[in-house]
Design brief:
The chain is of the alpha+beta class. It contains 11 helices and 11 strands. Strands 6, 7, 8, 9 and 10 form a 5-stranded antiparallel sheet that branches.
Length: 434
């Protein structure tokens, strides 16, 4: 077997493999002789067909089969011989000329990048430091009460936070447009769910009022379903059916019972809520530190990425979206996922190299701790623990996450970590973790 490799663009490789003609001929002859024992050809007794006849009838087909099999089996031998690490499915281009006794093929594929891990000397990371204060607990209680709010109809002008029952019609140049009308819909003033200016235009209305709103669609098509409406001025006629204000439940035993405390023990509810918030805070801090570690690894390790792996990761992300949407078959553009896919692929390669270079192995004790932590949220923790350990496929994601956390700890040992005071509120708001 003769092998020659050419470098293509980036991580692409073009490998030409020449097979020995004698090897192909010998394998074809062997198969023909084996086939002769059972071959059936008109004019000959079963198993008595001359090899010459079989060569004429089936030799070409068998030669194609042998060539195809040798291409598949020789590929792994060839890349091992050349010390290549291919990714993705290679594109195979056969080159067979029986008369010239040429049996060759070209394989085009990408390879994993080879790189040296960047140095972490002198790098600094920030570790958030915070605690769950009494004010955080009260704010959480208020959010829980808001989630359980009811609505009471009022006879006064609408104000921020009220819910309106409205019917409306909209026109563009005097003509209705798609999605421009609704009957007895409900909107909450201040949520910002409607076209900019819509909710603001209804401040101060009362039940029975009718109000005209002259509004302009923003110049951003992603903020509304019809691109042709971008920048257009439309007119909405809105009729108000009722105005209702939010009513928060009292913070008492009934409230506690409604959230899973049958005995209505409000003090016990407060204690468990604080403990849950403290666990959440710990996870938020760990996530923030981990994000910084991953950002740092990307900063000090600039590597080329195989497009094949990026495409695979895009496919996986899209499949996850479809699963979350219960099998919806709509197609999202690849570019929507490309940056995230590239980040995940790069981190996967860097973390894998770091694990190999430093001999980091998954710690069974930490795996057990993580499993027990996950199981603690179940009614029967031991049953959940047994469930994880009963099947390696169930345990594998926990082991993978544990190993990733061990990498984070290893990085933290190599850099300077400075405490950064913050608050539970800042860490728990979406803007704090973007």
């Amino acid at each position: 077997m003769q092998v020659a490799v050419e470098n293509g663009q980036g991580l692409e490789r073009r490998m030409t493999v020449g097979l020995e003609a004698d090897q192909v001929d010998a394998e074809v002859e062997k198969r023909l002789r084996e086939f002769a024992h059972s071959a059936r050809v008109p004019g000959f007794r079963p198993g008595k067909v001359p090899l010459k006849v079989l060569r004429q009838r089936y030799g070409g087909q068998m030669r194609q089969e042998v060539f195809g099999e040798l291409m598949r089996t020789s590929f792994s031998e060839a890349v091992a011989k050349e010390e290549l690490r291919p990714v993705g499915v290679p594109r195979i281009e056969p080159d067979m000329d029986v008369s010239a006794r040429r049996y060759a093929y070209r394989a085009v594929f990408e390879v994993l990048p080879r790189f040296e891990l960047g140095r972490l000397d002198g790098k600094t990371l920030k570790r958030p430091v915070a605690e769950v204060a009494d004010a955080d607990l009260e704010a959480m209680l208020m959010r829980l009460r808001e989630q359980q709010r009811t609505w009471s109809v009022v006879e006064r002008p609408a104000q921020l936070g009220d819910r309106l029952k409205i019917s409306y019609t909209g026109t563009l140049d005097g003509e209705p447009f798609e999605g421009s009308s609704e009957e007895d819909g409900r909107i909450e003033l201040g949520l910002g769910d409607m076209l900019p200016g819509f909710e603001e235009g209804l401040m101060g209305v009362q039940a029975g009022d009718e109000r005209r709103l002259d509004l302009t669609f923003p110049d951003f098509p992603d903020q509304h379903p019809s691109e042709h409406l971008s920048g257009k001025t439309v007119v909405f006629t809105v009729r108000v059916g009722e105005v209702a204000e939010p009513v928060l439940p009292e913070l008492n035993a009934d409230f506690a019972r409604g959230l899973g405390f049958p005995d209505g023990d409000l003090d016990g509810f407060r204690l468990e809520l604080r403990q849950n918030m403290e666990r959440e805070l710990k996870e938020l801090i760990q996530a923030r530190v981990k994000e910084q570690v991953m950002d740092l690894l990307l900063e000090v390790n600039r590597i080329d990425l195989p497009e094949a792996l990026v495409r695979e990761e895009i496919g996986a992300l899209k499949q996850r979206i479809r699963r979350n949407l219960r099998g919806s078959n709509f197609e999202l553009p690849d570019d929507l996922f490309r940056d995230r896919a590239r980040r995940r692929v790069a981190l996967g390669l860097i973390v894998g190299e770091l694990i190999k270079a430093n001999g980091i192995e998954v710690d069974p004790k930490r795996v057990r701790e993580m499993v027990e932590g996950l199981a603690s949220t179940y009614e029967n923790p031991q049953q959940a623990i047994d469930y994880f350990y009963a099947d390696q496929e169930r345990l594998a994601p926990v082991e993978s996450l544990t190993l990733e956390n061990q990498v984070v700890d290893w990085v933290l040992d190599q850099v300077t970590v400075e405490d950064e005071p913050t608050t539970f509120e800042k860490l728990s708001t979406p803007a704090a973790v973007e």
